[in-house]
Amino acid sequence: MKSHSIDMIDRLEKNRDLTDDEFISLITDNDPEVMSYLSGRADNARRRIYGNDVYIRGLIEFTNYCKNNCKYCGIRRDNKNAERYRLDEDEILSCCDIGYELGFRTFVLQGGEDPYYTDDMIVSIVREIKKRHPDVAVTLSIGEKEIRGEQGGTDSYRRYFEAGADRYLLRHETADEDHYKYLHPDEMSYKHRIDCLKELKDIGYQVGCGMMIGSPGQKPEHLLKDIRLIQELKPEMVGIGPFIPHHDTEYADYPHGSVELTLRMLSIIRLILPDVLLPATTALGTVAFDGRERGILAGANVVMPNLSPSGVRDKYLLYDNKICTGDEAAECIRCLSGRMESIGYRIVVSRGDHVRFVEK
Ligand code: SAM
Ligand code: FES
Question: Given ligand 1 and candidates 140, 171, 249, 317, which is best to mutate, with the most ligand atoms within 8 Å of its CB?
Answer without folding.
Answer: 171
